[in-house]
């Protein structure tokens, strides 16, 4: 059973591991207080006890799962990607755009902070 990001990454070739590590590093850089875990068999970052973002490798793409609010909020910037409710597909042949990852996780963090504030009132 997978318990760490390293366990998950070890299934893939070096090129794909590099892309996954790039995503991981950018998320850690943007939100260093987020914690890593495996949920739904995917690498997941948790912030304030809530899921910040999941990501996973597939045959033809890397899936990012920031939630439906982030996908709707960034709809224009995501127009070149296949999306569905809460999911973004980055084709494996594409570079990982760090600015996009940054915007996605910042939006997810803001969403969590807003929900936490309204819940704690």
Relative strand content: 25-35%
Number of helical elements: 4
What is the typical, i.e. mean, pLDDT?
94
Proper CATH architecture: Alpha-Beta Complex
First and last CA, distance: 39 Å
Query: Level of helix content?
Result: 40-55%
Write down the domain tally: 1
Q: For the largest beta sheet, what order do the strands appear in spatially?
A: 1-2-3-4-6-5
Summarize the biggest pleated sheet.
6 strands, antiparallel
Question: Helix and strand succession?
Answer: HHEEEEHEEH
CATH class: Alpha Beta
Specify the overall morphology: globular
Strand tally, please? 6
Radius of gyration: 14 Å
Unreliable segments (pLDDT under 50, ≥5 consecutive)?
Answer: none
Summarize the structure.
This protein has 121 residues and is an alpha+beta fold.
Notes on the protein architecture:
This protein has 121 residues and is an alpha+beta fold. It is 41% helix and 26% strand. Strands 1-2-3-4-6-5 form a 6-stranded antiparallel β-sheet. Helix 2 (14-30) crosses helix 4.
Features:
121 residues, Aspartate Aminotransferase, domain 1, 4 helices
């Amino acid at each position: 059973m997978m318990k760490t990001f390293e366990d998950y990454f070890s299934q893939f070739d070096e090129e794909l591991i590099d892309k996954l590590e790039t995503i991981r590093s950018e998320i850690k850089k943007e939100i260093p207080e987020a914690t890593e875990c495996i949920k739904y068999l995917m690498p997941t970052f948790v912030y304030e006890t809530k899921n910040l973002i999941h990501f996973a490798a597939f045959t033809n793409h890397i899936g990012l799962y920031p939630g439906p609010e982030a996908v709707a909020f960034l709809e224009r910037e995501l127009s070149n990607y296949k999306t569905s409710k809460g999911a973004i597909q980055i084709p494996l042949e594409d570079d990982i755009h760090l600015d996009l990852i940054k915007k996605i996780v910042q939006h997810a963090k803001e969403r969590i902070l807003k929900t936490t504030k309204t819940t704690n009132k």
